[in-house]
Amino acid sequence: MVVTSHYLASQVGVDVLKAGGNAVDAAVATGLALAVVHPGAGNIGGGGFMVVHLKDGTVTAFDFRERAPLRSHETMFLDSLGQYVEDLNHEGYLSVGVPGTVAGFDMALKKFGSRSWKTLAEPAVRLADKGFPLSWSMAESFKGYASDWRKFPASAKSFLRSDTVYYQPGDIWKQPDLAKTLRRVQRSGRDGFYKGETARLLAADMKAHGGLITEEDLAAYEAKERSPIRGTYRGYEVISMCPPSSGGTVLVEMLNILEGFELGAYGHNSAAYLHALAEAMRRAFADRARYLGDPDFNADMPVARLTSKEYAADLRRTISLNTVSKSPPSTLQFPEEDDHTTHYSIVDGEGNAVVVTYTLEYWYGSRIVADGLGFLLNNEMGDFNHIPGRTDSTGDIGTRPNLIQPGKRMLSSMTPTIIAKNGKPWALIGSPGGRTIINTVAQVVLNLIDFRMNVAEAVSAKRIHHQWQPDVMRLEVNTTSRDSERLLEMMGHRLRRNGYQGRVMAIVIEDSTGVRWGASDPRDVDAAAVGY
Length: 532
Ligand code: DON
Hints:
alpha+beta; Serum Albumin, Chain A, Domain 1; 2 domains; seven-stranded antiparallel sheet; binds 6-diazenyl-5-OXO-L-norleucine
């Protein structure tokens, strides 16, 4: 079963499985295919995380998060007066982190793969070279970003039919430059991206436009194998991404707090349930801001304590069931977090499970297509704390663990998660959505375990978000009744309507039969769960 944000990529994964490849092989082929057919977030110019649970019980994670260029520094987004230059961390060549995806896939293949780069990159090469029909949503989206494409000639070449003509639904969209880059990766794996022509062209593009990434940065990039965060929730095991993602740590902290409440008895999306949820979120997100960053630069992060049952019990005692706790006061503005990332879940016939969440940060990242290379560059530098020392109620965080340093990975919220039962993978979950990702994944876990929903119901159910600051509970439309909304307000919650929250791609493996049930989020458009 392969569940992704694009039906063609899901099919690529299934084809690998059918041909005898394992879940890691399929994850690489699918990831490369998404870089072609789902350019908003699928990528080779960004980064992300893969969590693996093999049928023999092996559990591990691959970190291919982008890194700050060697010439970057803590105040690079401030002007000479120390003022933040609005959006500089998200716009233009300075916003680009050193990409990690190809290195991550290469490392995962070396460890667990049974197929070659030649085989696994072929479907992506073909999709880029021969093209594929654009859906209405992709054609509309390309048009919607036209003013961005026009800023960069290589971007206009990729995403606009001509200067004045837009792609239409049903048009066959080809990416010849991307096909060439993917062929180099197909031939040489990691080196096809981080050395030779790809590296040379990327460094030259950077140099010509004031970017920081050099050939040295690319050659020095390393993916890392890490031990995922492991927790338990009502007898299930929770396995999720460790720092430099905050996802697994915050997820386990929240679930540990919530384990002490009879959530099932409260009723799904009742006022009592949403209150308990928001109070757990508030606490875990405060810890996220205070403590978390790249583990290679923050040796003293208290991850073990944050994910312990004892700590959760201490926090639980501070929760009142009738009133909100104090967060620092909030102002009116806060950044919306859209679904600018993508997650996919794969289980093979043997029962090996792989979850991947990877991203360019914004939808289409920096919107810059690397000149001559055909792929979009991320704007992940925006995930660093960009104003040292400024943590405020707008959602800005300026704490030290996530300040920019050369070679450092920016803190993420991506939460590729596997829930295991009796030592075997049972549920695979993940989502886009910036900081909302962690809360989205948590609610799908609760839907499955506390409310005994099937995977499609668990993925579809309405969700909320609270991130400590600003002190606001955001709800999707019709998450709960008007009456319950009033009750929440009487407890002191400030409610805000949210658009869609997340696009979950999930699988549940039925323990009695081994049947794999896949569910793609109805909030997504071209997504599909494909099995065989
Ligand atoms: O790593 C992260 O958590 C983010 N860069 C993911 C981006 C996202 O999902 C939505 N961005 N606003």
